[in-house]
Structures are given as C-alpha cells and as structure tokens.
Write a structure and sequence with these properties.
- The chain has 30 helices and 21 strands.
C-alpha cells in the first residue's frame, strides 16, 4: 500500500487517509518510552537539531518532510510502529502553540494522543490537553507551570516518558521564545490544509500477520533511544546539508531498506541490529579519519560531522566509500563465502598454497561479520577487532569497489605485512597504512608505500623478484609464508633457488612441536641463532614448551634478512642435514646433530656457552627461551652468568633458574640437600647454590666457582678438605681451566661436570 502524504493535524480529518478514519493516536505497549526529551548529551544535540528544523518550518514557506510513519489503523486508532518519536514531538508542539494561543478547545480533535506504554503517561496526556488546564498568567516555562498544577501527580516525576515530554516542551518554549515567533501564524502554518509546515507519509500496515511481527522486523523499536538512532538522525541531517537531493534520498532509503536487510542476518540472536549498524559505521568513519590523516577523537557524532561535513574536502569520497561499504553486500546471499574465496582459517593453512587462498589469523573468517560484532570493543587497550583485521577488511572492500586484478597475490602480500605485527601496525601509523593498503590493492605497487616495517616490505619485493624468475618456487615460498611459525615472513631463509625447495620441504617436520626440546639444542649446535632483547641484556632462543610458539616466531622473524645471517646459516645447515638423511626420522636426525656437536666440543676441549647448552638439556628448560646475563654482543660469548627465564623478563615476581647451577644439581643425581634453586632480581646479583645441612654455598664466576664455607668451624674444615680434593686453590675459589680464544676465555674442562661432582661429594659428607 502506498503512503498518503499528510500532516499531524490533517491526518485526523475524515477521509484524509483514504479508507481509514483516524480519531486518535495511541503509542502501543510494544514501543519504547519517549526519548527525544531525555537530558543526555547526545540526545540534547539531536533534539536541538530536530527542533531547529521544525521551528524554522513554522516561519518559512518551505515545508519539512519527515519521511514515512508506519502504523496499524483499527477502530479509528493509529498505533504507530515506526515514527513514535516524531509524532510525539509534533503532538507536543501542537499542544504548546494551541495552549499558548488559547486554542485547546478548538484543537481538541487533533490532540487525541495517548501512550499505552504506561498508565501514568496515558493519564498525563489526557490531563495535559484538557481545555480547562490552559496556561494562565502564571505561565513561566512549560515544565515549571505544569509541575505546579494541582492535576500534576507527584509520582509522575519517576516516569521517563513524562519527564522527556516536559524537557521537550521546555526546549520548544525556549526555541520559539528566542526566535520571537508569532504563535498565531505558527499555528496556521501547522494546520494549513494545502501546504502544512511539517508533513510526512502515513503508511497504514494491514498485510502483516501482526503489528508485533512487523515491529520486530523493523529493528526492535521498543527500547530506549539507542546510540544508533541518535547517530542516524545526525547522519541524516549531515547528508541533507551536503548531498544533492537524489543522493540524499537514496542513502536515507537504503538505511531503512536494503542496508538494514543486509545487517539483519547478523543480529546475533537478539533481533536488534542497531549496535551492528553503529559498529560498521564507526569502522567506516575511522577509515575516513585515517584517510584524512586526523586523530580520531570526540564522540562518534562529532567525528561523523568532521568526516562528512561539506567543509571537509574529502567528504564526497568518504560518502562514496560509506555507500560502497554497504552496497557491496546487498544481494550477497552468503557473505562468508565471499571471504572464503580469498581466505582460509589457520587450520587449513597447510593446504592453502595449493588453493591460492591466504590463511588468516582471525576469530572470524567473515571479516564483515567480525566487524559488526566487535569493532570498537576493547579489552584494556587491545582492540577485539584488531587493526590488522581492519586493514584486511578494508582491502577486501577496496577490491570489491574497484574490481582489482591479482587480488590473491595482493591480499597475500598484505597478510604478510600485517600478520603478527601488532608492535608495528599501530594506531599512530594508520594514517600512512590506510592509503598504502589502497595503493597495494589497486595497483600492486610496493615501492612507495609507507608505515609498514621496511624489512617486511623488502622481503616481499625479494620474493616477488624470485618468483618472477623461478615461478616453479611459488608454491614453496607460499607454503613457508603460511607456516604458523613464520606468518608471512621468511627472513630465516636464503632465497636461493637451488636449495629453497628442499629446505621448505624439510622445515615443517623439523619445527613440529614434538621436536622442540631437541631442536633447541640442534639449532644451537649449528650456530648462535638467537636475537638480542632489552638493550643487549638478554637473548631470545627457542623453547621446548609447546605453549610458547610465539618465541619461535620471534626467533625466525624478528629481524630482516640483512641482520640475521647467523640464524639463516644455522637453519640452512640444519635443514640440509635433515634433508640429506631423507627426512624419515626427524627426531633422530636432530639428536645426531646434537650428539656430533657435543662429541666435537669434548674432543677439542672447547666448552663454550653454546657447548654447555647443547650438552645439557637442563640448561634449555626455561619456558620462554629468554636468557639474561653478561652477554658480549661483540664476540657472542657469555661470561658464565646466565638467568634462564620462565617468564618474558625479570620484572615483577618472576623467578628463574641459573642454568649452570641447575645443570650441576640435576647431573649430580641428587634429589635433596640444597636450598631452592629459584632466583629473582637482576641478572648481575649473585646467585648461590646453598647446601641445606651446612649453609655452605657455591656460585659460578667467570674463571670457575666461588666458594662460601659453612660458619661452623668443624663443618668448614670438612668443606675445605673436600673442595681441595676437587681442585680448589683457596677456601673461596675453585678454578676451571680456560684458554684465550679471540680475546675471550673459554673453558677447556666441563665446569658443569666438575661442579656436579663437587656438589655430590659435599652432600654425601653431610654438608
């Protein structure tokens, strides 16, 4: 049924709505409270804007059209399902002008307006319009006058609809008074039969099973005024001021039409899509702000004004993007399938290189649905819909907007740049990243993009050059990129066409979690593969803990190919050895590599820090693979002062092991006899292995062991005798034989074995 154009006063005239005769308006029980009069910041802004439009129409010839009002009409009663707020505001304006011009008796036919939401609101409306309750000489402001009347009930102070009506009446009074509007002329403009000041289209609904069903379909109009409704009203005003009429009409009808239909599939089970609308609009506005290279700040309404206002030179392109961001999903029966054309979840990453799709680390492969559910939400400072996901969704929208070529390759490049890059894809960089993503997706150009990690960008350029020359290596490159420990970055591999394929084949088996405990030693046998952390005070190595995969990701991808030569050499040698063994039993290959290194260290009597860590798996038991200590970056040597961490750093209450002391204790075979071997504090603080029975101590120093005899004289003599038997040169020092290699002293005898033997003898002697 087509709507009938009418006005608030005219719809009460017989025959105005065709076959229907309206004698009164009743706001049905399923509707929310009247909210346009709420005393809230956002609502105050909306109210001021809306009243400004209505009041201006009372003094000018140009009428205001308030779009459609939907409702059921039966027994002469209109029960609006959409338009309640507008009708209530019009009712209050009609009452105010009629009351102030002593027309309440004559206007009774157009003031038959009731609220069925609450009995108190219904009674208030009935009392308000009674002619005998016309304002007298004591009228100051509507709210003050009404609340002073005998018919005003004390309990009405707690009815939100009544209080909102009173606030709206005060706002009407203030606006009309400030603009010195002639009330008699204003009344004539309101009730003019041919060109009323304010009109709308009344659409009776008689072909739905029930008004309640339509009510749910129309976005659940029965709750307090939502943020989206506030925002939508401001958006409509902005677009009315900035867009040509045809464009404005198209967008407004889409908001209530096909765009709502698109979002309806994602209501989350509550039959509401206001929040989903608002989150997607926030995404679009934030993209617009980043395109303008401005910092998002203020309320979403204020941000929308800056983005879409006619004063913004980019407003037209922002509106175009908003329109596309919604239009692109209209008519798409399965939005998830549209994303699955490009992406696969991490569970399918092993076969992704064969399908051309890109594995994506996301909670919802349907990025559109994820955005509707999570955009703008945070846990602490962490965005639940991450900046990386934001960039990927933006990339898909740009592709759909411009039908870009080679989209699989370009999305893969973008994934490689953003995946696992939370420390690089940061809020302050988004002003550069957004135009860079658009440039990448539209024309594939990487040479001038900004904001991304330059090592990653160079890696992408290097891989592109390799594949262009050796296209048969594309699958090998992609399979490495898709591995969860690399996540797009293959810095750890030389882009050598002769060896890349075999190394790519061996890598997944070598780094399988079940091999991590031995891999930590085998890779260290090949070289010092770790990378420095915390201003050189710490080094990150691999870990045997299957819950700490991020540590291996850091090892393989922390530094670009120009700064990780030791890692690449170590990994290449390891993979080549495993490949040469045929790859039948990777665990045995890794053990062989480890054993051969240990044999060489013992035969040459060169016990470097690497030799100790490879020889003794106890020294690699730290959950995080992080070691603090006296590490010399110039030579790559440790001065036998190490802290093996189970936490990422030394701060807080984190405890750690001294790997030398821990290995000595474990190798000794003792199960008791020493105090706790957990330590805390800075790495340069002394760490003592304390004997439980005597209180004597042993600690590791660069040239051997420092000794602390017991306080008891008899025990002290026993302690000294045993230590002397094991090579002590004084009561406080037991040296370990060393040799100078390139300016660094290296043990020529196994200090862990010597320390374990000493410890075992001391405990056996009752110390």
């Amino acid at each position: 049924m087509r709507g009938t154009k009418t006005s608030f006063a005219r719809m009460f005239q017989p025959g105005e709505t065709g076959a229907y005769s309206i004698k009164r308006v009743e706001i049905p029980l399923i509707q929310r409270d009247y909210a346009q009069g709420r005393d809230e910041r956002d609502v105050n802004t909306i109210r001021a804007d809306f009243l400004g439009v209505l009041i201006e129409a009372l003094v000018r010839d140009e009428a205001v059209d308030l779009d459609f009002v939907y409702g059921e009409i039966g027994d002469g009663t209109l029960r609006p399902l959409d338009g309640q707020q507008r009708l209530t505001t019009l009712f209050l304006i009609h009452w105010y002008i009629a009351a102030r011009t002593d027309r309440l008796h004559d206007a009774a036919a157009v003031l038959r307006f009731e609220y069925a939401t609450r009995a108190s609101a219904e009674l208030f409306c009935r009392e308000l319009v009674k002619p005998e309750h016309s304002p007298g000489e004591d009228f100051s402001t509507p709210k003050r006058w009404i609340t002073d009347q005998a018919w005003y009930l004390h309990a009405w102070r707690h009815d939100p609809t009544i209080q909102s009506m009173l606030n709206m009446l005060d706002a009407v009074h203030e606006r009309i008074t400030a603009e010195k509007i002639d009330l008699d002329s204003a009344w004539e403009r309101l009730v003019d039969e041919s060109t009323p000041a304010v009109s709308f289209y009344l659409l009776p609904i008689d072909d739905m099973p029930s008004g309640e069903e339509l009510y749910i379909k129309m976005n659940s109009r029965g709750k307090p005024l939502t943020d989206f409704e506030n925002f939508k009203a401001r958006l409509e005003k902005l677009f009315h001021e900035t867009l040509p009429k045809d464009d404005f009409d198209a967008i407004i009808h889409k908001l209530d039409g096909v765009w709502s239909d698109v979002l309806w599939s994602f209501h989350g089970g509550d039959h509401l899509i206001d929040d989903e609308f608002l989150r997607y609009l926030e995404f679009i506005i934030e993209i617009s702000e980043w395109r303008d290279n401005v910092i998002p700040e203020g309320t979403l309404l204020e941000r929308a004004e800056r983005a879409f206002d006619v004063g913004n030179p980019n407003a037209a392109s922002h509106v175009a993007f908003l329109t596309h961001a919604f239009d692109t999903w209209v008519g798409v029966d399965d939005v998830r399938a549209a994303f699955e054309e490009h992406f696969v979840d991490l569970a399918g990453s092993s076969a992704a290189s064969q399908t051309g799709r890109v594995p994506l680390d996301t909670t919802n492969l349907n990025l559109f649905a994820g955005c509707l559910e999570l955009y703008g939400k945070r846990t602490g400072n962490r965005r639940l819909f991450s900046l990386a996901e934001t960039l990927m969704l933006f990339a898909v929208l740009i592709h759909r907007q411009y039908a870009t070529r080679e989209i699989a390759v370009r999305l893969r490049i973008l994934r490689n740049l953003v995946d696992g890059a939370d420390d690089e894809v940061r809020l302050e960089r988004m002003g550069d990243l957004i135009p860079s993503v658009e440039q990448l997706i539209r024309d594939g150009d990487l040479t001038t993009i900004r904001g991304f990690n330059p090592d990653r960008v160079q890696d992408e350029l290097d891989k592109i050059a390799l594949i262009e020359t050796y296209p048969e290596l594309e699958r090998a490159v992609h399979s490495l990129e898709d591995h969860p420990l690399l996540r797009g970055r293959i810095f750890a591999f030389d882009l050598d066409p002769e060896s890349l394929q075999s190394r790519a084949t061996a890598f997944p088996d070598v780094v399988a979690p079940e091999h991590w405990p031995i891999l930590t030693g085998a890779l260290l046998a090949k070289g010092d593969y770790g990378y420095p952390r915390t201003a050189g005070r710490a080094v990150q190595l691999g870990t045997g803990d299957p819950k700490q995969s991020a540590r291996w990701r850091g090892v393989f991808s922390n530094r670009g190919r120009g700064r990780n030569q030791a890692l690449r050499a170590a990994l290449a040698s390891l993979l080549d050895d495993v490949a040469a063994d045929g790859g039948e039993d990777v665990g045995q290959s890794l053990q062989r590599i480890t054993d051969e290194f240990v044999v060489q260290a013992r035969s040459t009597r060169r016990f470097t820090w690497r030799a100790y860590l490879v020889t003794y798996p106890e020294m690699r038991e730290g959950e995080t693979g992080v070691y603090y200590g006296e590490y010399l970056q110039q030579t790559g040597q440790w001065r036998h002062s190490m802290c093996m961490l189970r936490t990422p750093d030394l701060s807080g209450s984190g405890r750690y092991r001294d790997p030398y002391l821990w290995a000595m204790y474990r190798v000794s075979g003792l199960s008791s006899g020493v105090e706790t071997l957990w330590f805390s504090g800075y790495e340069f603080q002394p760490r003592w292995l304390v004997l439980s029975a005597s209180g004597a101590g042993i600690r590791v120093v660069p040239d051997g062991f420092e000794l602390a005899p017991p306080a008891d004289a008899a025990l002290s003599r026993r302690f000294r005798d045993i230590c002397t038997q094991h090579g002590a040169t004084s009561d406080t020092h037991l040296p370990v034989a060393q040799i100078d290699l390139e300016g660094e002293l290296v043990d020529t005898e196994d200090r862990v074995a010597r320390g374990a033997a000493l410890l075992k003898a001391l405990v056996a002697a009752g110390l």
